[in-house]
Amino acid sequence: MSRKLFYLNAALLVGIILAAAALYGRWTEARQREEMMRLGRLAALRWNPTAPIPPARPVSAIEYSLISAQMLFSRDRNPNIIVELPPPPPEKKAPPLPKAYGLMLIGAKPRIILGTGLGNQRSYTAGEKVGPWEIVSFDNKTITFTWEDKTVEKRIEDLVDNNPMGGGSQQQQAGPPPGGYGGPPAGAAGVAPSPSALTTIGGPGADGAKVGADTGLSGTKSCTPGDNSPAGTVLNGMKKVMVQGMFGPSCYWEPVK
Length: 257
Hints:
Elements: H1 3-39, H2 65-69, E1 99-104, E2 111-115, E3 121-124, E4 129-130, E5 133-138, E6 142-147, E7 150-155, H3 170-174, E8 199-200, E9 211-214, E10 221-223, E11 233-235, E12 238-245, E13 248-255
């Protein structure tokens, strides 16, 4: 007998033994159950009722509206129209404030001397415009401007032009600011030269003298940039007067008396 046939016969024998043991066990259990039924010892089977399965709810179309409205591949089905607003325009930058050159708190309408550039200074009253800025009010300490819908209040000393000549030598910077004082500041006294000290145009030290624009106050006129002529210079019936005020030395031209 070959080895393979021997192993096959052994496996069949083991299978027959196991099948016979299982059959015997079932037969024994059946016999015991019959005996217990005969003797009335077999307990009746108990039925444990369970909760009934809830019925399925009817499908509601409104429950699917959110899904249909938010389809990733069909945004046009969204009932809420998405309005894409353009970005707000950048905020408009305020123009530079004018420079201050003096005050004249005299009379019913006080005046302040302002300028927007070299050689562009004159006196203003409240309500007038200096370039794009409108003067709302001012006193001896502060001034209020308005531009479009923006209101700015500044101290006058912060607007003083510390370099009115626009550069140059130290002597030029320390000299009188370029034309636009328009008259003596409040509380300032004019330097009244003696008749012998009056200098007529064309004399020594009168080079560059030039009468500026009318200041609108008592017939006085402003000085011009680069006018280094001394106090008392007479030109075209106007006499140059130097004054010392809270903003430093200044000058104006007045009619010769």
